[in-house]
Amino acid sequence: MTHEPKHTDAPSPAAPCCAPGRGGAALHATGTNPLMLALKSRTTSREGMVKLDGEFLMGGKDRDGHPADGEGPVRKVTVKPFYIDVASVTNEQFAEFVKATGYVTEAERFGWSYVFHLFVSNETRKAVTQAVAQTPWWRRVDGSSWQSPEGPDSDISTRPDHPVVHVTWNDASAYAAWAGKRLPTEAEWELAARGGLEQKRYPWGNDLTPGGKHMCNVWQGKFPYRNTMEDGFAGTAPARSFEPNAYGLYNTSGNVWEWCADWFSRDYPATGPRVDPVGPDHGTARVTKGGSYLCHVSYCNRYRVAARTSVTPDSSTGHVGFRCAATP
């Protein structure tokens, strides 16, 4: 059996290692993107979704993560029946939405998004004028968007089956509304991600690489300058990579962070309801779950199922995507 060393850093809940925010430059600081209001939902389909419900132990113990994230306490939660996508929404699926609606993402309207430094080409690097304070591996890149994930000289032509990235919470909600769906609550997401395993670190158990086998797409090597890609990927992997969990869900650890419906609160897990919790009724940031291809135990071990972090709803990066849920 292999075990990870104890994580000692405790960055803030909105630590930019996970997802830098736009820092107050928002077009829409909170609430619903007005563009959603004009969208007409297509015929709702449950293809590619599984129906789940049940009672489970949600959250984790502080010793496994970051106390500032509010993972604990471990609590018994009941979730009523819901559907959830087995995989993240892909570039191809998002392109269908854009073609049908003419939707323009917030990154496109801002004119920029955040790109991991190793993915910025030498040509694009000349035009990069801003790195994120204290985390220079994040670069603001003009012209980066879901269609140009690493900047204006990149595209997604070879990645139709990869998760769409550079989408804000507002963008994800707009897609979900068009698809006749919604974003999952944090409780729904975590119940589904666990695959029926009780209080395990990952969807498959407690060992990150059981028997030396890579089960997800996270960072190997020395973060943030050298990724040995032992799992086969430097950036995103196809949305249906690796083995699914026992409920049939792919990549609920690593690959891309996924937006949840809930407003983020460090204290809410301890005080909220225990049946279909939906988070506090207001806030400044939304919950994301699952970790990404940039997660590494030396700095951010939030690829555990219980892990969570917060991101402002107008923020977009090259490692945040989403999957949808639906009410029966």
User: What is the CATH fold-level name of the domain at 45-103 and 161-326?
Assistant: paralog of FGE (formylglycine-generating enzyme)
What is the helix content?
10-25%
Separation of the first and last Cα atoms: 41 Å
**What is the CATH superfamily of the domain at 45-103 and 161-326?**
paralog of FGE (formylglycine-generating enzyme)
CATH class categorisation of the domain at 45-103 and 161-326: Alpha Beta
Number of strands: 12
Query: What CATH architecture of the domain at 45-103 and 161-326 do you see?
Result: Alpha-Beta Complex
Low-confidence stretches are 1-16, 24-34
Number of helices: 6
Largest sheet: 4 strands, mixed
Alpha-beta content class? alpha+beta
Order of helices and strands: EEHHEHEEHHEEEHEEEE
% residues in beta strands: 15-25%
Radius of gyration: 18 Å
The rough form would be described as globular
Strand order of the largest sheet: 10-9-8-11
The whole-number mean of residue pLDDT values reads: 88
- Seen as an oligomer or otherwise, the chain set is single chain
